[in-house]
Amino acid sequence: MQYQTANEVCGSIRVSMSTLNRWIDPMSRYHDPSFPKPIKFGARKRRWESGELERWINGKKNSRKTNDAAVKTIPLNNLDSDATEEEES
């Protein structure tokens, strides 16, 4: 099992340390309960299990695909006809 430090986690998912701390702080309005909880190896030493982070990232990717599929698109020709009607008025 491999573990990542907070700096490694921030670097791998491209977020700041402040963002990471907000995601794991249950009192923060930005708390993300789906984000993996750190494993504490002492008072100030925390690590994240690499496999849990990968599953979290894959879950985000999958939810994005699901949300993208659920979005309805409006044909451009419908938008153009509405704009033309307004211009003619």
Describe it.
- By secondary structure, the chain is mostly helical.
- The chain has one domain.
- It has four helices and three strands; from the N terminus they run βααββαα.
- Strands 1-3-2 form a three-stranded antiparallel beta sheet.
- The mean pLDDT is 85.
In short:
With 89 residues, the protein is mainly alpha-helical.
Labels describing this entry:
single chain; 89 residues; mainly alpha; three-stranded antiparallel β-sheet; 56% helix
Number of strands: 3
Strand content: 5-15%
Task: Give the count of structural domains.
Answer: 1
Q: Which structural category do the helix and sheet elements fall into?
A: mainly alpha
Unreliable stretches, pLDDT < 50, 5 or more residues?
none
Q: Order of strands across the widest beta sheet?
A: 1-3-2
Structural Rg: 21 Å
Largest sheet: 3 strands, antiparallel
H/E element order: EHHEEHH
| Overall outline | elongated
Number of helices: 4
| N-end to C-end Cα span | 68 Å
Mean pLDDT: 85
| Percent in helix | 55-70%
List the helices and strands and how they pair.
Blueprint (H helix, E strand, L loop, with lengths): L2 E2 L1 H8 L3 H8 L14 E2 L5 E4 H21 L5 H13 L1
Antiparallel strand pairs: 1-3, 2-3
